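User: My instructor asked us to take a sequence, write out its structure as tokens, and then describe one feature of it. I'm not sure where to start. Here is the sequence I was given:
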Amino acid sequence: MEKRNDGLSFIVCCNKFGWTRSWGISRERFQFVLGALGIFVLGVLLSFFLSYKLYGEAQDIRAQKQAEIDELLSAVEAMSHDIIVDKKLEDKFIKRVLRLEKKLASIERRLSTKKKRRTPQIGGRGFRISDIGDDYFDAVERDIKRLDKVLAVIPFGRPASGSISSHYGYRQSPFSEAREFHGGVDFRGKTGDEVVTTADGVVEKAKYVKGYGKHVIIKHKKGYKTLYGHLSKIEVAKGQKVEAGEKIGELGSTGRSTGPHLHYEIIKYGKRINPKKYVR
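Assistant: Let's start with the prediction itself. The structure tokens for your sequence are:
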């Protein structure tokens, strides 16, 4: 390579064939090419560095999100287990309540057979009321209060006095011959008959819709909700607190209905369930 004042020259010689070739490039152009090449190399290195950094950050974010997903899945699994356990305990509790109800009915029958006695008897011969201490009555009273609190938030009993005209499950539609699912039970009655709530709670909805007509939905504890449809009159408002047995409206035939009746549903954790074991 031969250096000149006005630039650089490149000379190539071939001794075998006796020829010579030369190329020249100005200093300014050479500096420009060298600078462009440096910028290009620097850009490639910078791009590689940024890509590597972004890839690392993406991997970190992915690992973090995966950890959050795993945590949520664990929480959902635990919640599902709790719901299953709670449902089993609740079914067991309902069976115990029904057994208790039968026992109370049996006691009433026993008492009715003793009405001919002049003085009611408790216990056997020689038994005295004074033999029972106050602690016993206090314990029984506490148990009754606890039972009353639990029963108050679970929708037991009937919301209307009439008999059941249509049960929960699949049936032939009263509007056509098609088979349809009926998500509750219907009670017979006359327009204006009293409709009461079956448990303590808060009114979630109290309005008219096309299907249910004038209806009320009450939110209770332990995941329960109850729905009262086709009312002729609503006597509660959204957000109002109600107690078991309190009047919430009057039976009617509003909405999609063939005649006066009350449509009643029990909803547990967002799913309609069969009211059979609750309505006795």
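For the description part of your assignment, you could build on this observation: The domain at 164-277 is CATH 2.70.70.10 (Glucose Permease (Domain IIA)). Try explaining in your own words what that tells you about the chain.
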